[in-house]
Amino acid sequence: MKAVARPAELRQILAEWRGEGQRVAFVPTMGNLHAGHGHLVREASKRADRVVVSVFVNPLQFGPKEDFDRYPRTPEEDGTLLKGLNVDLLFSPSVPDMYPRGRNSSTLVDVPDLSGILCGEFRPGHFVGVATVVAMLLNLVQADCALFGEKDFQQLTIIRRMAEDLLMPTEIIGVPTIREADGLAMSSRNRYLSATERVIAPQLYATLSATRAALASGKSGIEAVEAQGRTILTSHGFRPDYFSVRDAVTLQVPGPETLERVILVAAWLGRARLLDNVRV
Ligand code: PAF
Fold this sequence. Notes:
Layout: E1 2-4, H1 7-19, E2 24-29, H2 35-47, E3 50-55, H3 75-84, E4 89-91, H4 95-98, H5 112-115, H6 119-122, H7 126-141, E5 145-149, H8 153-165, E6 171-175, H9 195-200, H10 203-217, H11 222-236, E7 239-247, E8 261-269, E9 272-279
Helix pairs in contact: 7-8, 10-11
Bound molecules: pantoate.
C-alpha cells in the first residue's frame, strides 16, 4: 500500500493508473477505522482495479464546541487494517495540505435544501463542512465511484445531490450499515460509550425497527410513531435530537409523491451522539 499526504503526490499516482486504463474506487473516511469501513473497502474492491482511501479529520465539519480535538485518531491501527484489505493508496493529508489559505478562507459548498434540516438543525455548518471536503476530495481523486455508508443517511443524500448538481463524474454509491451482533450500528463515536451505555445503545435500532413495524402495519400515523419513538428512547436514557419519518429521497416530510420513507434518529447517550436509520 502506498501512503501519501500531499495532493500533488496523489495526483501523480492517479495519473499513472488512469494512463494504464485502470478503474479507481474511492472511500473517504475520518479514520479510526472499524469493520464498517472494512466493508466499504471490500465493496470498493469489487467495483474497481484500484482502491484509494482517505483519512482526514476535517475541521470544517465540526462546530466550535464539538469533538474535533478529541475525535479518535488511530493512524497505526488504520494503516494495518487498510494493508490487510489490500488498499492500493492511502491519502492522509494534514489540515494545511487541505486548507492552505486557512479553514476560514475556504471556498464552501452548500446544498441548501438538505443541509439545514435534521442533523443540520443541531449542528449548524456541519454539512457545509462535509460537502466542501467531499467536493475537494472527489475533485482530487477523480474516481470512477466513491462509497459512503448509509448509516449517515443525510450525509449520503447531501453528497448525492451535490455530485448531481455540480455535474461531478464520480458515481456515488451508498453501502448498507454494518451492525454489531446486538444491532448497534458501527460508528467511531461508539468509543465514547461507557460499559453501561453500551448495553443500552442497541435500543436505538430496536426502537427504529419497532417503529418501522408500526408504520408498515398502517395502524399508526407518522406523528404518533415519532412521538412514541422519542418517548421510548427517553425512557431508556437517551436524549433524542430528533426521531423523524421522512421521504427517503428528499428528506422532507412524506407527501403523496413519496415512494419510500426512512426513519431517521439522532440521540445522545452519555457523551456519544448516535445516528441510525431504517427504510420503510
Ligand atoms: O463520514 C465521514 O467519515 C465524513 O463525514 C467524510 C464523508 C469522510 C467527510 O469528512
